[in-house]
Amino acid sequence: MKRFLLSLVLAGCALAASAQSKIVTDSIHSKFLGCEQKYNVYLPSGYDAAKEYPVIYLLHGLYGDYSNWVKIGRMKDVADELIASGEVVPTVIIMPNAGDNDVHNYQNGYFNVVNWPYEDFFFQEFLPAAEKKYNCGGCKGKRAIMGLSMGGGGSIVYAQRHPDLFSSAYGMSAWLDNKHREVRGANRPESKLTITDESVREHSALDFIDNAGPEVIGQLKTVKWFLDCGDDDSLMLLSVQLHLKMDQAGLHSELRVRNGGHTWEYWHTALRTSLPFASRNFCR
Fold it and tell me: What predicted TM-score, i.e. pTM, was given to this entire model?
């Protein structure tokens, strides 16, 4: 009898453990980038590989990598709380890698540059492989994208360039342009950061709206947009400018300017707005 009861307890503990949310670190070999790319995946409590889930792509910033949102941003705690409260539907959250903290010697960024065709990798290799493996996304209505700083800009520009793939885009402290050298390559021509700087300028989210014709504007209207930046952030003006340009083009976007700077404290709290925003805009 005691042995039977012990078996029941152990089985219950195993079931409870399997029902908890978890972070999985995975990797994919990229033919485009010529290397192995790690990424983190948040699987919600009760995740069942046989079920389909919506997906959020959560992008890191410059000087960062795929592990930042878990280790520093504590996204698992926030996602657990919001899903448990019903503010967010059970969702798979994928955190890709697009850089290294040694920004001078390793290429960073979400756009195609010489020897770093990252956008090709993301859309042609990474997105389809990750969604197939974790049974998530699969269509525009079940896919959202968001990120901080460089990843915030990457999120907005990806949704601008691929509006058929995302239901919503959320930029936190977004690096949306580099026209006025908001970030500089340390005046070192040999630095990889110089290439990243130039790629952000060439993929300006502000210029994209200026150059968008009626057909493109119509496509952008199918995406829900949110810009969120601290009032002490040097990049705040970019979010305000993009918001105004979108408004003038007939596009609706949410804009929040809150107390704070370009810090993890700010981005951690932004998750409490960004994750429910994405969830509300998933198709049911």
Answer: 0.92
